[in-house]
Amino acid sequence: MTDLSPSDLAKDAAARAGVALVQDGMRLGLGTGSTAVFMVHRLAERIRAEGLRLRCAATSRATCDLAGQLGIQIEELDEIGWLDLTLDGADEIDPDLNLIKGGGGAHLREKIVAAASDRMVVIADPTKVVETLGAFHLPVEVIPFGVETTITHIRRLLDSLDLTHRPILPRQRDGRLFRTDEDNLILDLSLDVITDCSAISSGLHAIPGVVEHGLFLGMCDLALVGAPDGSVIEMTKPEVTA
Ligand SMILES: O=C[C@H](O)[C@H](O)[C@H](O)COP(=O)(O)O
How does it assemble (predicted)? Predict the structure, then answer.
């Protein structure tokens, strides 16, 4: 790959470091997004060079298609059953390794795959590292049926959490409502700062039309943050003191 922007060089550095964790015989979850694209390319290179025998599940149709084009066989998650490692990108990473994901609308399958993995490792460029989650909109996947009612429920939840007047925007693409791989809709919540991630998470999960939100709390084990010069910083969870 030539002529990469500084941002792409950083993503590629993180992707290489993530792929370096892959060992022969592993069952892998492959994430979605622009950083994951680098990861899938680097993984395909290692498979070709080293003959790695892997079993891989994808978190989106896009990743499934790319992997197929590069000669990586993708199986259904349920055929594999459980995964050793998932490598995925993120939109925001806080110091506790809590994440916002779903900028590409793939967070539902990503969360199912990450939850079925012994280890979730995030690969990212430095712009994704934040002190507090929330500057990036929080994606919420919702069922199309009764979406206005679901928005009303979300509005009431935000009001109850002192997050009044925060925009709740149905995601659009090419002038039409964006549809996920499950044919659902995405609502993007502009929250600015999320001070109580657990309250938002449990509140959203309690709303019937909500399928899944993009907060990944306590799921990430390690974040690999690449830089344009090829170096990578490892972020680990802070030690819990008794
Ligand atoms: O839905 C998309 C995923 O959660 C992505 O992993 C996330 O948006 C990060 O994508 P990127 O690597 O393109 O910044």
Answer: Homodimer.
pLDDT of residue 1: 58
Contacts of 154 (CB under 8 A, 6+ apart): 140, 168, 187, 189, 204, 207, 210
Q: Which CATH superfamily is domain 138-207 in?
A: ACT domain (3.30.70.260)
Q: Residues of the chain whose pLDDT is less than 50?
A: none
214 C-alpha to ligand 1 centroid (Å):
10
Alpha-carbon torsion (192, 132, 91, 220), positive or negative: negative
What's the pTM? 0.96
Cβ–ligand 1 distance for 32 under 6 Å, the answer yes
**Residue ranges of the domains in the chain?**
6-127+218-229, 138-207
| 91, 120, 121, best to mutate for ligand 1 pocket (most atoms within 8 Å of CB) | 91
User: What is the ipTM for the molecules in this complex?
Assistant: 0.98
Give the pLDDT confidence score for residue 242 in this predicted structure. Answer: 67
Q: Assign 15 to helix, strand or coil.
A: helix
Given this structure, which CATH class describes domain 6-127+218-229? alpha beta
Q: pLDDT tens, 5-20?
A: 999 999 999 999 999 9
